[in-house]
Design brief:
By secondary structure, the protein is mainly α. Helices cover 37% and strands 7% of the residues.
């Protein structure tokens, strides 16, 4: 179930609507590089549902339990290129232009994004 607020709804009313859902829900904060105080404003009240936060900002660990945090290290460049090939279906790019594939994974710091 996807919920999107209309122009008149506020972030608070949307968060309250999410919190009141009876079904399972997932809220994703992708590349949340603001501080914890920024993300905390957009967390629904209560303890239901699931929230996934991806960030390079280690300070965001303070808004979750340590056992629920996972730091992903850089991959070896060869592994990152292989992941790019498999996940993007760009077999010809990796085979025909390996330097371009390496530029892409280097721009992503060899992180499994």
């Amino acid at each position: 179930k996807v919920i999107s607020g209309n122009a008149d709804s506020s972030a608070l009313s949307t968060l309250q609507q999410i919190a009141s859902l009876e079904d399972d829900w997932l809220l994703v904060f992708d590349n949340a590089d603001g501080g914890p105080e920024v993300v905390e404003k957009f967390l629904p009240p209560g303890s239901r549902g699931n929230i996934l936060i991806t960030s390079r900002n280690l300070a965001l660990q303070r808004i979750t339990l340590v056992e629920n945090s996972l730091e992903l290290p850089e991959m070896a460049k060869e592994d990152a290129v292989m992941l790019l090939q498999k996940s993007s279906c760009l077999v010809s790019l990796v085979k025909d232009q390996p330097e371009l594939a390496e530029k892409i994974v280097s721009a992503l710091f060899c992180l499994p994004l």
